[in-house]
Every structure is written in structure tokens, then in C-alpha cells.
Amino acid sequence: MSLFSAQPPTQQSTQPSSFGSAFGSTQQNQPFSSAGAATTNTPNSSGNAAGTPASAAAAPFAPAFPKNGVAAPALPAQITPDASSTRILKDLLDSAHNLPKLHHGSIGPISLPLSELRKETLQLRKNEKHGGNHTKAHYLLSKSGVNASDFEAELDALPRPQGGEAGAENTGQNYARDVETSAEREDIENYLGAKKDETVLSAIEQSLVSASRDFDRFINLSVAIDWKVRKDNLKRQLGIPVRTKITSEELAKSFTWNKSLPGASRVLAPLALSKTAANSTRHVSRDKFESNARVVYKLNESRLENRPFPLCLSFADLCKTSADSKSKQMGEIWRILADLSDEKLATVNQEQLFFESYQGAQPEKTLRKQVVKHSKLALELQFFNYMDEIYTKDDQKPPEFQPATNINKVSYFIHKVITKNNDSKLMERTLNYNGVPIWALVFYLMRSGLYAEAVDLTQANEEAFNKFDKNFPIYMSHFFKLGCFDLPSELHERISSDYSQSLQYLNEDAATFDPYKYAVYKIIGKCDLVKKNLPAALNLSIEDWLWFHLLILNEFGSTAASDLLYENYRLESLQKKVVSSGPARFNASSNHPVYAKTLVMLGLYELAVQYVYENINECDAVHLAIALSYYGLLKSSKSTSDDLIVVDSNDAYQVNFSRLLGSYTRTFKISDPKVAAQYLILICLSKGGHNAEESVKCHDALRELILISREFGLLLGDLNPDTGDKVPGILEHQRALINLPDIKKFYSQITERSAQRCEEEGRAFDALRLYQLCQEYDTVVSLLNKFLSEILSMTELDKPLLTGATYRTPEGGMQPVETSENNLILLARKLKGIFERNSFISGQITPKEKEINEYLLPMVDIRDRFVKKDWQGALDGIKNLGLVPIVDTDDFIEVRRAAEALNGYDVKLVKVIPSVLMIVMTSIAQINHNASTKKFGMGGQERGELDKLKTIAKNCMVYAGMIQYRMPRETYSLLINLEALL
């Protein structure tokens, strides 16, 4: 045994004492002495480390000499008692590195609380064996003259108490047993307390872990972060040079919310405004707004009845009332689309007429040909009307231009306009036959769409064409027969040969160059398409240029297409040419802009919507998009961004149709929610009208409108205040238009989900009304029970639930402040009466919710009695309610049965149990106080009643003790204090 371990624990010290310094060797220095002796490697070093108990006890008071008389090595100076403690600790730490290291990786740290450690130590003490024969103690006492056996005999002779633990064999054993029993009792309490703490902490830990996991999942799903941009920005802030320059816009876009999640994207929000867009395009007059809204409403009603509706013609009529250039251009656009869809002659519903041709898996060439044909006809009709107007206005026309035939009108136009506005020598350069410019007349007849007259003219004047043009009447006749698109293959070869011989290699400035003949051959024969321009001498307008390019397209002919790519001219090529030129060229005249019309004529409908939105008017762009979507001519985007137009992977333009409508309705979604609903219904027109993604967007938009406007009666329906029956709203009436023909699906997707959103946002009255509108009556009662439970459990007991306050109306009458419109308790009472009178509604409510409601609503009256200090009335009400045991006998079985029954209670009832117990105990305490402070004391009967009330209070406390973990701790403490008052 070492010297250090031989000392009593109470004499150990961690600091040098005056006692140690006086004797030159302290108790704490013995280990160092031993260690120093051990390092000398002497043969007797092991003997110095052990000895008899006596020598071990005497060692602290004597110099540390070994038995062989050799003095022990002196203590090093740095670890003498006079050395500083810091130096000693440092040397100890250094020497500790040389100690063998034990690896106990499998042994965990001690994490038991103090109560558990105490329990473990008691268990170890209990397992220790105590011998009954203390021989050494007998010897020690006998030296002092004490006979232990006599003491034992005298103790046994003492009288013993009867029964219980007092009859133990001896006092020592009795005491030990008492200590053991007390320890066991404390062990049970400690165990229960530890288990409770462990359960609470475990629940808290699980809740935190779950919340953290849910938050991380929500962030991962909802937020998109560009870490490269964030990293470069952080480097720049820290002064670290970065190569890339980060703009504020890029930094803002590096953190975005994922709008693809349901409910994450707001449809009724403004679109991102382009830099080129003007704010004036957002303004619209009230008359124009209402006129367009009426057309949209009629469109939806026609779709509901599956009958045709002249949508474009209706919008075109609205443009006639305005004389500005923008309205005029929009009117021309509407007429072009009306002609394309043939609205005047339609007898069946034309919804999605061109969807398969325009947006199908393989877009058809037929639609492109149809677009080109109608655009050409529109330009020709426009030119003819212009020419006819000039002819009609002049009352003094020369006789050679009469009567008013089409040929005379064109001849007069050449005489009146072309000859005067162009070079005087222009008519001299073209072929004149009997004073008539034949090629110019043919050109302008074609420009006016008078192809039949042009054929008649050429056939009647065959002798006018020389030997190089003798076949032209044949060319003209076959061109007209083939729809003015193409020539037969043999004629195409012949006209190409004639063109090469007479025109291809002539310079425009040559005296023999006829610009009109050149233009006619270009149009009819599609000749030399490497050069796609007409001579400058013709002085073409923008419409003339577009008409010419539409006619020389060789995409639709059966034989006109060439094997050489540069001699092919397709509609796509013309579209690219127009887009690359931009609006500046087509809007050269501020009084007659034609860029938007040009885009529509070429089938660039998405770009037309974008241009009208940014440069003409938002209202016109929205209705243009509606008309195009109605006919299937608008490609809608899947994107949920705020951009109006996007480009897909195939470089095709797409319009964010749902966001366009949502952005437009944002200005009147509250003032005119019915009108807004008519526009949002049209979101389902996209992608053929039955696309699931577009339907979801439409439903999201309608739910957003419902929640923002709160016009439930107008949009979803009204409720009869007496019977609870429902009158359908506008959305329910038109539910087939949003792909929800089944009423149950409509309730589920629109009304019920709106109610759930209101419930999440804490809008109790809105949620209850919406659940009623979707006929979820069981949910209505369940939600009412939930709200009643929260009110009864969380409000202060001394505050009234219903104040009964009133206010004076302007007419002088008095009205209650609290009504079923603003008070949940009154609403619950009203709905209970309505539901009970309606057998259909009552049959849809589960018995469980009915029972809970039967418990909670009477609690309001009980609380009212309690607040009015009707203590006995409150007790009687709770006793009749039967929610907690009101037992005036010592029948603990009934109390235990009630406590066990609590496990089957709904949480809505469990939440009100503490407040019910508080009412019971407070009422009994108040009755007891009133009785004990009566002036003339209590009678016998009154004293008996009071004893019964105290028994009730005792049973309530027993009940509360059994369920104390189901109620707040402070509530249980208050109950104990109330019991103490009794």
C-alpha cells in the first residue's frame, strides 16, 4: 500500500499547508517522494513502497528513509512545496505524457442525473454484506472494560411495541429497515420524476428535430440559390479580387423562390415590365373596360352552351368607336383573324379550331398556306378599298375612265396617283397598247385582288404582247386557276426561260427595262428568288412590300420549290426577315403603324401579343391573347416566371397566358370580382382547353381571387340563413369551363381548398362559411368545436365570453355589437339550430362531433354563471354536463373510472378539463368561504351540504392527481391552493 493511499480522505489537500512546510514533508508530497524513490531503480525500491499499517500511519510524521538506511533522493527543486503551483501543474502535465494510455473507446461518458446516481449508489450499498459478528469491536470494547454481550442482553430485555415494524429484532436492524424503506419510497418518486423529465425532454427533442428537418426540406424545395454568384459576391465584400462582375440584378436573381410548387406562385400579380414598355399602355377607360368585359362574359356563356360566337368581330366593332391609329390597327387585326376563322359563316362552335394544325405534334402546312392566303386577301382588299375611295371621290373623271368597272378604277388610279407621284418617264418605260400601260394595269389588277379581270385583260389583248411574251396569257390563266400560288411544272420551266432571256440580266437603269413586267414575272413564276426585291421605281409602300413577299413564297406550290436552298423562299424566312427589321421600319408613319398587323399576318401571334402589350395597350393585348387562345393559335408557356414571353428549347415563342390574365385582373379583382372570374376562367383555354397544368393554374387563380375578394356569395353561392340551403354562384354555374363538370370535384378543388387555406391563415369565419358552401358539414362542426375548445380553455375565467354590448344605429335603434358574423359562440349556436332543423345536414354530421358540441356549448352558459358568481349554478351545470366526476361520496372507483375514460376523450374536450376543474374548486371554495363567514353561523343541514361539497372537492383533487400530466403545471398548483382553502 502506498503512503498516499493510506491516508484518510479527510486529510488530503490540494494546496501546500503550514503544517507540511513546518515538518519539511507534507502529506501531499509523499507521492512525489515515492515516485522519486521508484525512479532510482534500487533493489529495495519496491520494499519502500509497502509496509505494515503502523509504519504506513507513522510515515507522514517522519523523514522518508528506506529500511536499509540509505537516504532517499532529494526532491527536485521545481516540485518542492515552495515551487509555484503553475510550474508544478505544468511539470505534472509534461510527465503525464509518459504514462501508459488506456483506450476505453467503448465506454461512454456518465450522463445520469443526480437522482439516478443516488439510486445507483443506494443499490450498491444495499448489495453490500454486513456481518452480524463484529469481533474486532468486541475486543476494542473489552479493553475499556465494556462487556458487549451484556449490553446486547439488556437491549433484548427492553419492552417492544406491538405490531408493525416496531417489532424488529433490534434497534439497529429496525433503523436500517426504516432507512431502506424510506430510500425505496424516494426511489419510486425519483424514478417517476426522472421518467417524466425524460419523456418531456424526449418529446421536446423529437419536436425540434422534426421541425428542423421540415424546415430544411421546405428550404430545399422552396428556395433556389446560385451559390457561385453568392460566393463571388462574398469574395468581393471581403476584398478578394474576382474576375466576374456581379450586377445588382444578378445578385437579386441568385436567390429565388421556387414558384413551381402548388400555391407558391401568385397568378394575380403584375408581370415584369419590359424596358421598352411605356406606362401609358396600362391605362384604359371605364367604357372600354366594360365593353370588353361584356364580350368576354358572352363568350363564356356561348362556350357553356356549345354554340358559335363571333369573338373577333365583336372586338372589331368595339374598335370602330375610336379614331386613333392604335385602335385602327387593332380593328384591322380583328378583321384579319375573323376572316381566317370565317366567323361570319360559322354555324358550329369553333373553339380550338386551329389547335392541332398550329400546336400539334407536327404542325400542318395547310394552316401556313391558309394564313398566307387570308393575309394576302386582306392586303388586296385594303388596297382595292383605297383605290375605290379615290375613284368615288372624284366627280369629274375623264370619260375614258367610265363607267365604274374594276378595270376603269385601276386605270384611273394609275392615271391619278401613280403617274403623278412617280417619275414621269415611268409610264414611258412600260409597254403601252392604245395608250394603256398593259404591264402596269396587270400589276395593279393583281395588287387589288382582281385576278379574273387580269386574265380577261391579257386574253383580250394577246396581240399586244410581243414574241417574247406571247405565252404570258397562258401563264396568267393557269396562275389564277391554281389559286394564285403556283404554275404547273412545264409552265414554270417555260416562264423561267422567258424571264432569263428578257429580264434576268437587264439593269434597272436600262432603257428597255420594264419594272412592272419584271414584278409580274417575279410574282407569277417565282423567278430568280435570289433577288427578292422589286425595282425602286415602283415606290412600294409597306403593305405593297409585304404583299409582294407573300406572293413570291414558293413553299406551298407542288413544283415551284427548287433543289437549291437559296432559291427557296419559305414563310419562316419571311418571318425572320420581319422580326430582324423590327418595328421601326413598319411604323415609319406615325399615323399608320402596321407592325402589329404584320406580325399577325405572318402567323407570329406570340410576338404580336408581346408588341401590343408593350406598345399599344395592355387591355388590347389581353383580348388578342384570349381570341388567339380561343382558336388554338397561341402557344402558352409552362413557366411560372413574371416574363410575358419565353423561348422554349425549340426556339419557339410562348406567351405566359395565365400570368397575362392574372396581371390584367389585379386592378379590378376586388372592385369587380365577377368580371375578374370571367377572365380567369379563360386560363383553361390554353393548350387545347383540356390541359391539366393549365387547369391547375386556373384553379389556383380562382382560389386566390376568392380569398382576396371574399365575395363568397357572388362567386361560390349564398346560404339561406334559415334552412342552410345553398344558391349556386357564378363559378359553380360555369364549372364546366374550368374542367370541373363534376360538382364534387368542384367543391374539392375550389371551395374546400380555399377553406383549408383560410383555416391555415386563421380566418375562422371565412373557413366556416366555405366549408358550408362545399357541404362539408361535419368539418364545419369539427372546426366549431375546435374554436370553442380554444376559447373555453384559453380565456380568463373571470372574463365574460359574451359581453352583451350594444351600439346605436344612425336610425336611433340599438343593435348588439356581438353577432353571428363576428362572434364564434353565437355562430355556433346559430348553426346548431340550423343543422338540427335540416335532416339532410344533420345526417352528414358524425355522432362524435355532435357529442363534443353537446359538451362544449353548455360550457358557455356555465362560464356565464361562474362570471356572475352563481357558484351553485355553475356546479350544478358541470354536474349535469358529466364531463368531470362530481361525486359527493368516498367512491374512488367512480373517480378512477372517470380518469381512465379521459384517455378516450377527444383532444377538444381534454383541453377544457383544467378550466372545468378550476370552476369546480373555485365555486366550492367560494361557497365554503361564504358559509364560514356568515353572521349567524351555519345550520346542521347547511353544514352537511358543505361537507358534501368538500368531499366533491377531495374527489376532484384525486381526479386531478390522476390526470395531472394532462394539464398545465400551474393549473394543478392552483387547484392545490384552492384545496388548502377548504
Considering the chains and any ligands shown, give keywords for the structure:
single chain; 982 residues; mainly alpha; two-stranded antiparallel ribbon; 10 strands; elongated; nuclear pore complex; structural constituent of nuclear pore; Nucleoporin_int_Nup93/Nic96; translocation; Nuclear pore protein
Question: What does it look like?
Answer:
Its main location: nucleus. One of its GO terms (cellular component) is nuclear pore linkers. It is built from 47 helices and ten strands. The protein is mostly helical and about 1000 residues long. Among the domains are: about 5-95, no CATH class; about 365-570, no CATH class; about 775-860, no CATH class; about 870-980. A two-stranded antiparallel sheet has the order 1-2. A two-stranded antiparallel sheet has the order 3-4. A two-stranded antiparallel sheet has the order 5-6. A hairpin with a 2-residue loop joins strand 3 and strand 4. The model is unreliable at about 1-85, about 165-170 and about 260-265 (pLDDT under 50).
Rounded to an integer, what's the Rg over CA atoms?
Answer: 51 Å
Structure class: mainly alpha
**Biggest sheet, spatial arrangement of strands:** 1-2
**How much beta, percentage-wise?**
under 5%
Count the DSSP helices: 47
Helix content: 55-70%
- Mean pLDDT across all residues, rounded? 81
Largest sheet: 2 strands, antiparallel
